[in-house]
Amino acid sequence: MGLWFWGTPKNMGTNSITMNTIDVYAYDAYKRLKSGRPGPQFLFDTDLFDGFEVDYYYDLDGNIFRGDDINYLGIGMYDAWKGNSLEWSRAKTALWKAQYNQHPSRDVLEWLEYGYNLYDKFEHPEKNVPLSNAAPSVTISAAPEATAPGSGASGK
Fold this sequence. Notes:
Elements: E1 10-16, H1 19-34, E2 54-60, E3 63-66, H2 67-70, H3 72-82, H4 86-98, H5 106-123
Parallel strand pairs: 1-2
Antiparallel strand pairs: 2-3
Helix pairs in contact: 1-3, 3-4, 3-5, 4-5
């Protein structure tokens, strides 16, 4: 266990969530980035971050995701905002997880990539092309209301 963990997080159950809701959280993160004062990246979380003592799970069209995994979309957005490459973002995430004796799960990496690409979509809504290789595969426009649900990876 890593520095922040005092035991196994308590499972707080599963709640339904939509892509629209996730994109609203992502748009809030985008606005914080655009403010120019988002704070340090290691503290840059969406409202989907549960903390270290509990785990919330979310059912997105029959696919179950940990809130902490979805939260990595904020890290991807942060790296895109800083001008870092997606590869750098993946490597930094692996280093972050390693300090807790973990590896980034497929869900973590897919949500990270989703956030990374979503930042560009918010910056350039005129592009309006599918976000390839992102979890879940969706096409969005600039407004969070315009998202379409897709399929994502399931499991922890």
